[in-house]
C-alpha cells in the first residue's frame, strides 16, 4: 500500500499488537503523515508536530500490550493517542507561556521598584538555587528564557540545539520547578 494509506489492514493491526517491528515501521510509514497533520492543526508549530509524531509512535510501541485489534483498528488507536497527546502538549505550552509571562512581569516590577524587597530577594535566591539543581543544559536554558527574555528559537540558536529539544527542556524543567517550589511552599515553617 502507498505511504499515507489509511485503509484498514487487520493483518497489520494484529502484527503490531504482537510486537512485530516490521509492523511498527509499516504503521509509521502509513500513518505518520496523518498524525503529523493532526498535531500541526492543533499546535500550529511544525517542530512541535514532529515531536508529537515521534512521541505518539514511541508511546504506541511502548504500550502496545494495551492495544486490542478486536476493539479498534490501529489507525483509530493512534488517532486517539495523537489527540490526547496533542491536547496535553497544547495545554502544557499554554501553561509554560503563562509562567514565562508572569516571570517577565515580575522582572519588570523588580526593575521598577528600585529598592530590594526582602521577599523578592529571597524568592530570587530560591529560584537560582533550584535552577542550579536542574543542572545543564536546563539551568542555562531557563536562565536565557527568564533573565534575557529570549524566545525558544533564540535560545536554540544561541546554544546550537534543536528547537524541539529546547522546548522539551523548558517544559520539563518548568514542571520540575513547579513541583519543587510547591513542595517547598507546603513545608511547615519552623
Structure characterization notes:
The N and C termini lie far apart (68 Å). The longest helix is centred in the middle third of the chain and has 40 residues, at 74-113. The mean pLDDT is 78. The protein has two domains: 10-90, Rna Polymerase Sigma Factor, Chain: A (Orthogonal Bundle), CATH 1.10.1740.10; 115-186, Winged helix-like DNA-binding domain superfamily/Winged helix DNA-binding domain (Arc Repressor Mutant, subunit A). It is 77% helix and 0% strand. The chain is mainly alpha-helical and 190 residues long.
- What is the percent of helical residues? over 70%
Strand content: under 5%
pLDDT under 50 segments (min length 5)? none
Largest sheet: none
Architecture per CATH nomenclature, i.e. the level-2 architecture of the largest domain: Orthogonal Bundle
Instruction: Briefly note the CATH topology name of the largest domain.
Output: Rna Polymerase Sigma Factor, Chain: A
Amino acid at each position: 500500500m502507498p505511504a499515507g494509506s489509511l485503509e484498514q489492514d487487520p493483518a497489520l493491526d494484529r502484527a503490531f499488537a504482537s510486537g512485530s517491528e516490521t509492523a511498527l515501521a509499516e504503521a509509521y510509514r502509513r500513518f505518520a503523515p496523518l498524525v503529523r497533520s493532526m498535531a500541526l492543526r492543533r499546535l500550529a508549530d511544525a517542530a512541535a508536530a514532529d515531536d508529537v509524531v515521534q512521541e505518539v509512535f514511541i508511546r504506541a510501541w511502548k504500550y502496545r500490550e494495551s492495544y486490542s485489534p478486536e476493539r479498534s483498528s490501529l489507525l483509530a488507536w493512534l488517532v486517539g493517542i495523537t489527540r490526547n497527546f496533542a491536547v496535553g502538549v497544547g495545554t502544557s505550552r499554554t501553561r509554560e507561556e503563562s509562567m514565562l509571562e508572569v516571570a517577565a512581569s515580575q522582572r519588570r516590577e523588580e526593575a521598577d521598584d528600585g529598592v530590594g524587597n526582602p521577599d523578592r530577594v529571597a524568592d530570587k535566591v530560591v529560584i537560582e538555587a533550584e535552577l542550579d539543581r536542574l543542572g545543564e543544559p536546563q539551568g542555562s536554558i531557563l536562565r536565557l528564557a527568564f533573565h534575557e527574555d529570549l524566545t525558544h528559537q533564540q535560545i536554540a540558536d544561541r546554544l546550537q540545539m534543536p528547537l524541539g529539544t529546547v522546548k522539551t527542556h523548558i517544559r520539563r524543567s518548568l514542571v520540575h520547578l513547579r513541583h519543587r517550589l510547591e513542595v517547598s511552599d507546603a513545608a511547615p515553617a519552623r
